[in-house]
Amino acid sequence: MKSFLVLVVVVLVVNVCVAQDYGDVTTATPPSNGGVSRTKELVPAMFVFGDSLIDNGNNNNLPSFAKANYFPYGIDFNDGPTGRFSNAYTIVDAIAESLGLPLIPAYSEARGGDQVRYGVNYASAAAGILDVTGRNFVGRIPFNQQVRNFENTLNQITANLGADDVGRSLAQCLFFVGMGSNDYLNNYLMPNYPTRNQYNGQQFANLLVQQYTTQLTRLYNLGGRKFAIAGLGMMGCIPSILAQSPTGKCSDVVNNLIQPFNANVKTMLSNLNSKLPGSKFIYVDIASMFRDILTRPATYGFKVIDRGCCGIGRNQGQITCLPFQTPCMNRDEYVFWDAFHPTSHVNVILGRKAFNGGSDVAYPMNIQQLAALDIETN
Fold it and tell me: Using CA atoms, how far apart are residues 173 and 44, in angstroms rounded to an integer?
């Protein structure tokens, strides 16, 4: 309880400041935590919801096969393996630093004081928009439960400080949400799920976004106003899919499958901006950024774009990194860390582009501009 009180008290007194220039994202290298000197925060706090692309430890103590709290995960991170599915940073770590925030702690591990006052990460590996997604990994925290965990946080602080104070603070915080990958990889495309026989690609995208709309509206009703929603990336080009391809090339079938979802999400965010007073939802175009990296890898310093830095099987893509497996040495030159996840180098590039990029990567504004908005609450 004391930890949550500290969170809100600090949030109420933090002011928004002017952003600093973080340099050329094309030459970004994976930093370690604490590698960038923090300036004054651009938002009071950031709340994170998503899957393994941004999970930072919420699955560590779950009875789950979806875990990354062992080496070589975290090999380039000061704290070692934390549960991040990366050699160091995730995209939200890079965004947090760009916002002048410390790295956001996992909901399952945050204990109080300085650990939680700048936000909480609720993301969970294998989680999906649909509750049934990811059951092959056993334990995971679906998006609905992530929203309930956030609600539990608010219930504990609202009773002590009052809804008005909490509401004014939350309106200036950033809510980052990245969901949907597992609904395809660990649901629709899995042979032990009936989903593909029940829905065609467009119908499934419609189902997901209908549920997604309800979930995001719930976060709005709980006080969120500034939302950055990440679209799905080039999933047909990940090592896991390449390992199944007889040609070793990106799967157009998979890439085309997710296009209706991304299109629906863009329409959904436009509708939410119109219907929810005081809200501002932006779309972070992961597919566009990833396509540019894969098309022009040398521009970003990459040499290997079709296999994981660690893993087992063809293209290091059939099984993710095994405990204490020796990964590649030249990690900065790899786009993919394992069968499903990008390297920290890629995550830093994506995070910085989402922060200060143009309308081709973040629409209708970037995260820096979203952070600067002064949201009025009734």
Answer: 6
Sheet holding 46-50, edge to edge: 119-121, 46-50, 174-178, 226-230, 280-284, 362-363
- What are the catalytic residues? 52, 338, 341
Query: pLDDT for 165-177, tens place per residue?
Result: 777 889 999 999 9
- Structure tokens belonging to residue 329: 């040495």
Q: Dump pLDDT digits (tens) for 129-179.
A: 999 999 999 999 999 999 999 998 787 666 555 566 777 889 999 999 999
At residue 69, what are phi and psi to the nearest 5 degrees? -95, 45
Mean pLDDT of 65-94: 97
Place of tokens 């004391």: 2
In whole angstroms, give the CA distance from residue 308 to residue 338: 4
Distance CA 341, CA 87 (A): 10
Q: Give the start-to-end residue ranges of the domains of the chain.
A: 2-372
DSSP calls for 173-197? SEEEEE--HHHIIIIIT-TT-SHHH
Phi, psi of 18 (to 5 degrees): -80, 140
Looking at 3.30.565.10, 3.40.50.2300, 3.50.50.60, 3.40.50.1110, the CATH number of the domain 2-372 comes to 3.40.50.1110
